Amino acid sequence: MSRDRLKPDSKQNRITIVQFVLTIHSMQLGVGAISIPADLARISGTDGWIALIMGWAVSVVASLIIVQVMKRYPKGTILELIAHYFGQWAGRLTALVFVVYSAIFAYLILDRMVLIIQSWIMQQTPPYTLMLLFIVPAYVIVKGGVRIIGRYSEVVVLCSLWMPLAMLVLLKEANWLHLLPVLKEGWMPVFKTVNTTIITFLGFESIYYIYPNLDRKRYASVGVAIANTLTLLVYLFLTLICFLVYSPDQITQFNDAVLSVVKIIEFRFLERFDIVMLTCYLLIISKTWIPPLYIAVYCTKRLLFGGKPELYLGVFLAGMVVVTYLWNPDWNESVDALKWFSNFGIAIAYVFPLCLWGVLSVMLKFKRWQT
Amino acid sequence: MRRAAAILLIASMLAVLPGCKDRLDLEDITLVLMFGLDLDKDNKLVIYASSPVFNKEAKNKNEVTQVNAITLRQSRGELEARVSALVSTGKLQCILIGKKLLQHPEWVKLLDVFYRDSKTRVKARLVAVDGPVADIMYFAPPDKRRLSLHIANLLDTAYERNLVEETSLWEFHRQLHERGRTPEMTELRKNKREVVADSTALLNDDGKYVTSIGIEETELLQILQKDKKSDLSLTLVLPEQEKAGASFLYAGSISFYVLDIGRKVRTAYTGGKFRFDLDFDLEIRLTERFFAFDVLHDAGQLEAQIDKRLQAQMTALIAKLQANRMDPVGLGLHARAFQYAAWKKVQDHWGEAFGQAEFKLRVHAKIVDMGEIT
């Protein structure tokens, strides 16, 4: 990619508000969608969907705070913003943190995606072989910069609009009595679930890096709200479908509840619909880990004073395959790693912007920092 | 130089792809369409597998094998040592289970492989068999197609006409793990000439076989469940219209389609007992009547006689279910939804609470069509 590709405010890197919304939404909606109904049911039974709405509210607030922070330095990403207000070394430290964060994010999601394929379709094939299949497309997309990622998100969202429609077929198996009584054990279990749901909204931290590329910045706040709402609607839809179809005592036994339920969709001309769904769902998962990969490359370049981004990208992708070849994480390790990582995510996406916003608000009260 | 490196890289990646070990050619697959599970005379597990043979040289178009095994997955190896190719359950149609096996509640553990291994078709039908499973597995009627496909079609169409209940593997899992209802499945038997699907096996909370109900009772059960598929045709003999006549003819016979079922369930909990008020509004269309009646003017009178008869039969069915502590209607879901506090106390032994519940049942039939002749 040319140097300009990574310059956030250069003209050829501008993204429209739709691309902005869909990129954020894409990074939020990923592997979590497959397991979230059962995860919620394990904590608060069929009331878990209420916690989704609470998690959404929290993530909207956090996204709006990030937008407020980014407004302080609209020309650059979070790295330039920090460098501007706190000095070069603070900027470099932030870059380092984000390299680690994004690289782990991208790796864990890619690895989980490969594990899902292995578990559902190709049980005898080693994960690193499957991973190789996704390396080339990821390379091409990330190389294109933010605009290409934005367009990719648009295309994939458009291509996957049929999936919720196909899942509506399941409503003929639905039993609405499963949802009653609402709040059967009171509010406590629901509050306990909120922790799980705010993790599923992780991904809006991409605003840190795509905000400067946004064409019309005054729509940014509306945009992040729409992106979060879109994600909420998808999660609510999947969760309610699963709660209606599975019996409340049954759903807790399933790991990938959404895939298992799709297995019962059959047409006269097509059986094993879950395989079709899963294959198409891979596209949706791919747009979850491609943006963080871009962020990792971007931050590496900042950290190492330039150099060729393609090289870093290649190293990251090759590194992922090598790590999988050497470590080969199993399902339990993947689950544990993601659980550990979600704490990191909460710090980066929820705590960090709040602190930064507080510090900046106080700082800018004083004249000497107001440039 | 760079292009050469790129080509080399892509070529080396392609070279890894044959490492994909999941390739399976169609010629190397034996598609098991029907499994049979039963106990032999020493109470050891026997697994039968029936699969089609696509070969011009084979005289029989169906291959049936039986093995002794500890589990179903272990039986796969034993089967593969005998059948033409590699066993695949992706097209599984039916799983026949002998009643002798169904008497042991532990039998449900055998199904674990179907839910755990993502390669099985979970829409395969579960079927109870009255009598030895081997009789059906090895049965090859000359006037029918492959038995496995014949049975699948037989069950589907019988279910479509509401004659039997049909339960897929997935549906069974849901019923078994729903504390508010008990599972059910189609029951097959074989007489001298054919395979008959004319009853429904009812299981208790643990999945143990308890009793069976016939076609008429299954139809009523489906009204109770509000689970009508396509044509639901009932035939009643009204005692009010009975007259002494030829011994084979019941003069009080009347048949009708139930076009629409309206069900209202009211759930209450008083005096330590659940109480269900079930109200049914049935729209019916007469299709057969042996006695003279002026439906145009006295429809209400006929409706009252039908109501009374249906009410008596449905009450008897509920009493039978209660006596056996089984709730295939799923009234436990209503108890959970509307009387949660009371439900929580009995949720782990709902069958018992269902058995002690009080019922009030009302049926209101409405003749919307008397047919072509008066």
Our count of domains of chain B comes out at 2
Along the chain, the helix and strand elements of chain A come as HHHHHHHHHHHHHHH
Strand content of chain B: 25-35%
Helix content of chain A: 55-70%
User: Roughly how many Å is the radius of gyration of chain A?
Assistant: 21 Å
Q: What integer is the average pLDDT of chain B?
A: 89
Characterize the largest beta sheet of chain B: strand count, sense, and whether it forms a barrel.
9 strands, mixed
Q: How is the CATH topology of chain A named?
A: Amino acid/polyamine transporter I
Distance between the termini of chain B: 94 Å
Which radius of gyration of chain B do the C-alpha atoms yield? 26 Å
Transmembrane segments (chain A): 15-36, 48-69, 89-110, 125-142, 154-171, 191-211, 223-246, 275-299, 311-328, 340-364
Family (chain A): Belongs to the amino acid-polyamine-organocation (APC) superfamily. Spore germination protein (SGP) (TC 2.A.3.9) family.
Membrane topology (chain A): Multi-pass membrane protein
Keywords (chain A): Germination, Membrane, Transmembrane, Transmembrane helix, Transport
